[in-house]
Amino acid sequence: MESYTPRPSRRSDVAPFLAMDVMEAARKADASGENIAHLEVGQPGTPAPRLAREAVIRTLQDGDSLGYTVALGLPALRERLSQMYSDIHGLDVSAERIVVTTGSSAGFLLAFLSLFDAGARLALADPGYPSYRNILASVDIEPVRLEATLASGYQPDPALLAAARMKGQIDGLLFASPANPTGTALSREDMAALVSDCQTHGTAMISDEIYDRLWYGEKPVSALALTPDAFVINSFSKYYCMTGWRIGWMVVPPGLVRTVERLAQNHFICPPHISQIAALAALDAEDELNGHLEVYRRNRALLLETLPGLGFRDFAPADGAFYLYADVSQLTNDSMDFSRRMLTEAKVAAVPGTDFDPMRGKSTMRFSFAGSTETVERAAHSLTKWLG
Ligand SMILES: Cc1ncc(COP(=O)(O)O)c(C=O)c1O
After folding, report:
1. pLDDT tens-digit map of 172-196
2. How many whole angstroms from 363 Cα to the centroid of ligand 1?
3. In this structure, which of 82, 239, 331, 377 has its CB flanked by the most CB atoms within 10 Å?
4. Residue 9 falls within a domain, yes or no?
5. What spacing in Å lies between the alpha carbon of 53 and ligand 1's midpoint?
6. pLDDT of 197-210, one tens digit each?
7. Pocket of ligand 1, beta carbon within 6 A
8. How far is Cα 310 from Cα 367, in angstroms, rounded to an integer?
9. 116-129 in b/e burial notation, b at 16+ Cβ within 10 A?
10. Euclidean distance between CA atoms 338 and 328, whole angstroms
11. The domain spanning residue 28 has which CATH number?
């Protein structure tokens, strides 16, 4: 009898997320007794805030059934997020427009599906967070690369958009401030120029603001301060140290809430109930969370002191997030191979730039300084021994 062999769809043919692959190789090395310095994955080394963990314990002890919630998220959490926008950003964002999501990753899917049909084209800067283009490709939306340069902080600008429009219709623009892998933020003027350009050309906007509370110089501006028409994506993963809880939110243009709700009901039913309870409590944990910012600030300074002397150059201005993105062309012409050797020889894990910029990333690397200062010190010491 002939056997049936399932075959993958064409749409599932997306690139692997190399940072996760490096994380897995580093985990295996740790398991075999190595003590790897983890500078690969963008996640805090600290747990969810104490208030969040306590809220979870209370809920479990009370025997709460933790059933489905409404698809848009617990009303109390949406109200509290609205309050946060007022307290932190001085912005009046109605709870009606706030949608709680299963991490920002679900927010992207909902935003893309709400705004675009198959075949649409969405512009985004390279280097950029790799899952953007991989999620887009998996739902038949074409990612259009804007080859951003160090001179503009690797951010998109109207000139890059104009050049892209010469080659074909652009239906949407995604920007991130501060961005991954570079940490660079758009100034208010530069974001306003993008918003105005998109409004003129009828281009939908998606603003990834998941690093908006992690900044080292000037406070990043939210697209919400400039327009109600952008989809603004955010997350509890980074500032709130809740990566594995899979909880985030987005702010949706007023006329599109019901569209998002219908998609969210069908794709996800609701975000994890227990994580929503934790997130609500995390919003009151500013004192603890701001303490972590001081650690990132120290880690960032330490790497910026050490790496340039070892041949890492042309750092993107790390205004925020917890990354440094550096040119490594003095050290290698193959960042993937360099990252493998760094792991096995120096016991330091970092991500090759090809993850973020398939065309030019062979000469760049990303370092995450989201871990402890001890980890970053150990990495700096090992790299100095390896390359110095
Ligand atoms: C820029 C950016 N957006 C989105 C995400 C996804 O985060 P979440 O855990 O909220 O799905 C990441 C994760 O690293 C990121 O760096």
Report:
1. 999 999 999 999 999 999 999 999 9
2. 23
3. 239
4. no
5. 22
6. 999 999 999 999 99
7. 42, 103-105, 129, 176, 180, 208, 210, 235, 237, 243, 248
8. 14
9. beeebbbbbbbbbb
10. 9
11. 3.40.640.10
